[in-house]
Design goal:
Elements: H1 2-7, H2 13-28, H3 30-33, E1 41-45, H4 52-63, E2 69-74, H5 85-93, H6 111-114, H7 126-140, E3 145-150, H8 157-173, E4 177-183, H9 193-201, E5 205-208, H10 214-224, H11 226-230, H12 242-251, H13 255-274, H14 305-316, H15 319-332, H16 338-345, H17 349-361, E6 365-366, E7 369-370, H18 373-381, H19 385-401, H20 406-413, H21 425-439, H22 443-456, H23 460-477, H24 482-494, H25 500-512, H26 516-532, H27 536-552, H28 554-560, H29 576-601, H30 607-619, H31 628-640, H32 644-660, H33 664-680, H34 684-697, H35 700-703, H36 708-721, H37 724-731, H38 743-758, H39 762-778, H40 789-799, H41 803-815, H42 820-833, H43 839-853, H44 856-872, H45 876-893, H46 896-902, H47 931-934, H48 938-948, H49 953-960, H50 964-978, H51 992-997
Parallel strand pairs: 1-4, 1-5, 2-3, 3-4
Antiparallel strand pairs: 6-7
Helix pairs in contact: 2-4, 7-8, 8-9, 10-12, 10-13, 13-14, 15-16, 15-17, 15-18, 16-17, 16-19, 19-20, 20-21, 21-22, 22-23, 23-24, 25-26, 25-27, 26-28, 27-28, 27-29, 29-30, 29-31, 30-31, 31-32, 31-33, 32-33, 33-34, 33-36, 34-36, 36-37, 36-38, 38-39, 38-40, 39-40, 40-41, 40-42, 41-42, 42-43, 42-44, ...
């Protein structure tokens, strides 16, 4: 690399010209002739690795043979304390006899004083100055002389005195002597006074090298990388390209760093050209796109060994103090002040400032922070493990003393897998850092903070509280480990080590895991505390828990019985978190209890009010550890309030939010709820997919009693699709015994009943449906929107031949709180129980209700029964119309068994293509649209698709952000174009994906 670096210089033409003129002037004697001494010295100045040495060599190459006689010396930090080190090099290079100078102990009695370090203020003995002058005079007698010293800032003071004396005496003696030096930044000390005198008091030429511009980087790339040069812009005056800009951003225009990146780039190209397995680095050479030469056009170029080595060279050239400062900057990552950095690495503040300035100018740093993360890592790795641990511990303490943010302090404590310092403030700072990390979605970092805080906490109560918080965050990022995190807290609850409010919040976790006895014991303990010491906040938390028990874990509440109801007072003041907790518990409890039960929650509120309150809470609340339970309750409120479209909209939004927060636990539960929403819309394939994803995302022990939700959705979806063996396998899976004492168990019992009914086990199905009804009545949540158990009983009775009982339960369902969807179910069953001549009217009502409420599976079943009824009544053509529509809808929603039973051997007509409801549907579900359908505009197609899939005009307008009038106009044009007259004649094949996602 060094050879290439020396061979390619860009943006240095002006400096080369001025310096070659200086050297040529020396050769012609013009320097000696200048009365004021002008031109006797030339200085090349610039940041670390800016190309000073390369420029010096280039000038000497250009003037070789025609210039003055050159004698050189090269300095280094290690030789700075050696007196006369530079003078020795110059004399040796001039091929003089060194023992003519009194520089060695054998030269005389005073030589020993001269060969040992001496204070800068002590002048060099006159005899040495004269001897050096005479020695050079002999050389100058043969012609002009150019003395070249590279990195003059490292020259020893004694040699500098000799050079200054020689230059002052040269014109008087007629000798033609000039001095050409390169000088880097002064770091770690004050430059000798004699150096300042030599370089600045004597008039001369000063050349300052700066970093390369973006255009200069482009020229360098073109010179060394033909591919990069081939992509230069058409305008010949500019070499600025995206690649040049990205290289410049990574290097600050430092030539050494630019060359390092180019070397790494060329190495990658050679590896890629050699093909797979060309070398150990080939696996890391690219990203497998096959076009790696374009990789840097979109961002920071690949930083390999050459670039990192070049950066470390820049750091090391700032000296030992500079390396320590750079290591401190790398560890702190830009945190802390200059004073703190100086204390951390134990150097003076002015040294820190010098190093920072030098590295900023060198392009290693930008605004005192490393430009490239790889360089920062490499600098940190230059420390031993022991040194890194010591520095990080010290950095944490200093940052804490300086009042730094908890996240900044925690970053030091958690680095390098070290143990935290034995300081009382550490657990508190780590706990605060965990909360701050969660605000920026750094959940894994928050978990690490809490783990360390717990490990170094001395107070047992505080340690258990930290464990409780840790368990809450573990559920979000690693739900499979959640039960193990909770178990140690059971003893803390029994011993009363947790504050009562935190105990109440822990109860939700105990209930979810099915630890009902432990949860009940914890609740009793908190109730006793509340009786002894009334507390408004604790009463609010306990009241919200009571509502949650009543709506989800009613069996626990039955055993307790004495949990206070939530108090409501005019002067009640709740925090935002408490308000969300209490509101969500009230709305879910209210919508499930209904009627008289709702009045227990709020006497003036009905189901619609609960749904609106839930939606307001969803609209104004972010998904966090403190709110996710409440938001789930609000989502379920909309679901049980029979608002499937609204509930689906909010569920999808929460799923996106959970994914953004990298929360697999939240995502799994939300998918389970979302699967039930799809199931109630008759989207069987989507329901199956969501339920399977939910079960795959969490292991069974992570679900606890909540496993009833995804399992029930999947069992019911599989049953409706006709996958009875798969449903049976799901029912064979072990579930927690206490699941059947929860609301989740009601869904499970109902799904099991549907499977039993579909597979001919009619008595078993009747038992499950009846058990559902008994529990729901006993728990005071006999709501058809929870599970329509009466319809299930009616179907089972009908299958057993008891038409009167079937009719009784169907009519009982119709007389109750049934919404349109459940009324459609009940009417279909009632029609089957009534004489044949009454069936078409009842089934037509069922079809209208199910279509309006968008339950496609049940709509297909009702249309099937309607077609069969017309056929039995002697109207086969009318029967065929309804049967064909039932076939299309059954195929579109994924009810494979049903559509195969309708037309086991007859393929669908070309004019009635079946739609693929979701990407997961069978590939043969899609057919090319007819010419009439193709004539629809995009807007008409979207409106027609939504209408065909059961959305009302108002819902379509809300989804597409258009007015109801516009929806009606679109539908009128659609009817005319595809030659239909009724909404129910719209083909379900119209862009089913649009209907689901619009």
């Amino acid at each position: 690399m060094g050879k290439a670096f020396a061979a390619v210089l860009v943006e240095r033409d002006e400096q080369i010209g001025r310096l070659t003129s200086f050297v040529s002037g020396t050769a012609s004697g013009a320097v000696a002739a200048a009365a004021a001494g002008t031109g006797r010295i030339a200085v090349i100045d610039g940041p670390v690795a800016s190309g000073k040495t390369a420029l010096l060599h280039r000038v000497l190459e250009l003037t070789a043979g025609a210039g003055p006689r050159v004698i050189t010396a090269v300095t280094s930090p290690a030789e700075q304390s050696m007196p006369f080190g530079v003078v020795e090099q110059l004399v040796r290079d001039a091929q003089a006899v060194s023992d003519r100078l009194p520089l060695h102990p054998s030269a005389g009695p005073d030589a020993a004083l001269d060969s040992t370090p001496r204070p800068e203020s002590e002048p060099v003995p006159a005899e040495i100055l004269m001897a050096f002058h005479l020695q050079l005079a002999e050389v100058c007698a043969r012609g002009p002389v150019l003395i070249v010293v590279d990195d003059v800032q490292y020259a020893d003071p004694q040699s500098l005195y000799c050079l200054a004396h020689m230059l002052l005496r040269a014109s008087a003696s007629g000798a033609v002597v000039s001095l050409l030096v390169s000088r880097g930044p002064d770091v770690g000390g004050t430059p000798p006074v004699v150096l300042e005198e030599l370089l600045y008091q004597l008039r001369g030429l000063h050349v300052r090298l700066g970093p390369l511009s973006v255009d200069g980087v482009g020229r360098l790339l073109a010179a060394r990388d033909p591919e990069a040069g081939a992509r230069k812009p058409a305008a010949p005056a500019s070499w600025s390209t995206p690649l040049a800009a990205s290289v410049h951003a990574a290097t600050g225009g430092n030539p050494l760093l630019v060359h390092g990146l180019i070397e790494d780039r060329l190495s990658r190209q050679r590896l890629l050209a050699a093909g797979p397995g060309a070398g150990p680095a080939s696996a890391e050479a690219g990203n497998g796109t096959g076009n790696e030469t374009e990789d840097a056009l979109a961002g920071t170029p690949h930083a390999g060994d050459q670039f990192l080595q070049s950066a470390l060279i820049c750091v090391h050239r700032t000296g030992s103090d500079g390396l320590r400062v750079a290591q401190g900057i790398a560890l702190l990552g830009g945190a802390g002040s200059t004073s703190l950095l100086a204390r951390l690495v134990e150097v003076e503040e002015w040294t820190v400032e010098q190093v920072v300035t030098a590295l900023n100018e060198a392009g290693v740093l930008e605004k005192s922070v490393f430009r490239h993360g790889g360089v920062q890592t490499a600098v940190v790795e230059s420390l031993t493990d022991e040194a890194a641990t010591r520095l990080r511990q010290r950095a944490a303490v200093l940052l804490y003393e300086d009042g730094a943010a908890p996240l900044t302090i925690a970053a030091q404590l958690l680095s390098h897998e070290m143990s935290a310092p034995d300081e009382e403030w550490v657990p508190r700072v780590l706990s605060e850092a965990a909360r701050a990390a969660l605000c920026t979605q750094q959940v894994e970092f928050a978990v690490r903070c809490l783990r360390m805080a717990e490990s170094c906490c001395r107070d047992e109560t505080e340690r258990m509280l930290l464990r409780a918080h840790l368990a809450k965050y573990i559920w979000r990022v690693q739900p499979s480990a959640w039960p193990q995190q909770l178990r140690p807290l059971l003893g803390a609850v029994r011993d009363g080590l947790l504050p009562p409010v935190d105990t109440v919040r822990l109860v939700y976790d105990l209930l979810w895991n099915g630890w009902m006895d432990d949860a009940a014991a914890a609740i009793r303990q908190v109730v006793d505390v509340l009786h002894r010491s009334p507390d408004a906040r604790l009463a609010t938390e306990l009241g919200a828990l009571r509502l949650a028990l009543a709506s989800t874990y009613p069996a626990v509440l039955e055993h307790l019985g004495d949990v206070p109801a939530p108090a409501r007072g005019a002067g009640e003041r709740l925090s935002a978190q408490e308000e969300i907790l209490l509101t969500s518990a009230r709305v879910l409890h209210g919508v499930l209890r209904g009627g008289d039960g709702a009045r227990d929650t709020d006497p003036d509120t009905d189901a619609e009010d609960f749904a609106e309150s839930a939606e307001r809470t969803l609209a104004g609340t972010r998904l966090t550890e403190e709110t996710h339970l409440g938001l789930r309750a609000c989502l379920l409120t909309l679901f049980y309030a029979d608002r499937p479209a609204t509930a689906t909209l909010w569920a999808d939004r929460l799923l996106v939010e959970a994914a953004d927060r990298k929360a697999p636990g939240w995502t799994a539960v939300l998918r389970a709820i979302r699967a039930h929403m799809s199931l109630r819309r008759g989207h069987l394939v989507e329901a199956r997919r969501l339920a399977e994803q939910a079960l795959d995302q969490l292991p069974p022990h992570g679900w606890g009693v909540g496993i009833g939700m995804p399992l029930s959705a999947l069992i019911e979806a599989r049953t409706a699709m006709g996958d009875h063996e798969a449903a049976a396998e799901l029912l064979d899976r072990p579930v927690p015994e206490d699941m059947l004492t929860t609301r989740h168990g009601l869904h499970y019992l109902y799904a099991r009943g549907r499977h039993q009914l579909a597979t001919g086990r009619h008595h078993a199905a009747l038992t499950d449906f009846t058990a559902c009804g008994e529990l729901m009545r006993r728990w005071g949540m006999d709501r058809s929107t929870l599970v329509p158990w009466r319809v299930g009983v009616a179907e089972a009775r009908l299958a057993l031949g008891s038409r009167e009982e079937a009719e009784r339960f169907a009519r009982e369902q119709l007389a109750g709180d049934a919404g349109q969807r459940v009324r459609g179910h009940a009417l279909r069953v009632l029609a089957a129980a009534r004489p044949l001549r009454e069936r078409p009217a009842l089934l037509a009502q069922a079809v209208a209700l199910l279509q309006e409420d968008s339950d496609w599976y049940e709509l297909a079943r009702a249309l099937t029964d309607l077609g069969q009824a017309y056929k039995q009544l002697g109207d086969p053509s009318q029967g065929k119309v309804h049967t064909r529509r039932a076939w299309r809808i059954a195929k579109g929603c994924g009810a494979r068994e049903l559509y195969r039973s309708l037309h086991p051997s007859q393929p669908p007509a070309p004019s009635a293509p079946a739609a693929q409801p979701r990407p997961a549907a069978p590939a043969d579900a899609a057919r090319p649209p007819s010419a009439a359908v193709s004539s629809l505009t995009d807007a008409e197609r979207k409106v027609a698709a939504l209408a065909a899939h059961g959305y009302t005009n108002r819902e379509i307008g809300a989804k597409l952000f258009i007015t109801v009038s516009t929806v009606e106009q679109h539908l009128t044009r659609v009817y005319r174009k595809i030659n239909i007259t009724h909404r129910q004649d719209l083909p379900v094949s119209l862009d089913t994906d649009v209907a689901h996602t619009a």
